[in-house]
Fold this sequence. Notes:
By secondary structure, the protein is α/β, with parallel strands linked by helices. 27% of the residues lie in helices and 25% in strands. It has helices at residues 29-32, 37-50, 65-71, 88-91, 115-118, 125-138, 167-170, 181-192, and strands at 9-10, 20-24, 55-60, 77-80, 94-98, 103-109, 142-149, 156-157, 162-166, 196-200, 217-221, 224-227. It has a four-stranded mixed sheet, sandwiched between helices. A three-stranded parallel sheet has the order 2-3-4, with helices on one face. The chain has a three-stranded mixed sheet with strand order 8-9-10. The chain is globular, with a radius of gyration of 17 Å.
Amino acid sequence: xxxxxxxxxxxxxxxxxxxxxxxxxxxxxxxxxxxxxxxxxxxxxxxxxxxxxxxxxxxxxxxxxxxxxxxxxxxxxxxxxxxxxxxxxxxxxxxxxxxxxxxxxxxxxxxxxxxxxxxxxxxxxxxxxxxxxxxxxxxxxxxxxxxxxxxxxxxxxxxxxxxxxxxxxxxxxxxxxxxxxxxxxxxxxxxxxxxxxxxxxxxxxxxxxxxxxxxxxxxxxxxxxxxxxxx
Length: 231
């Protein structure tokens, strides 16, 4: 199978118009305490606001489906896809767009931000399968980027061929230690349809995602970046 770049697809910018937003209804005790109701109310409120201007897709499990449907507006489309946690930005597909506007997904390998090296939970099989399942549910063709380990929060695009990443994350021992920086760059260029990768050394110190780029920098327009830092 070709890569997205070979097929003429690229990762659009986050500030460009998009069709919808994917969320995951929270329930994991380790992240949301024994009673996740407060988190669920917050997610429902966010979904309600988003649904006023775009399509919202909420991933639910057998355990949460009824609760979610009772809390969410009818416009929100619930997808019965089981996950290990609620971080849709990191486990959902990376969507790329063709020259004709066609959309496809990319399914990276997900290992809970570091696998056995320094991952955040022991079993991430459901999260790893989520991107494929989402693409099937939406009827979107999907590129399989495995065994390359990556999360959505680890990459940021200007929509014109430049990708931002951090060395702390992409060169961490729990991602792709068998690959060099040059090999990782080449992989990103092929799968994101990009021309250049800008490597920033660090993200937020001791961040448990190994310092994702989305915590510190974001394109707001081509050539314009919002940057967060402290003294």
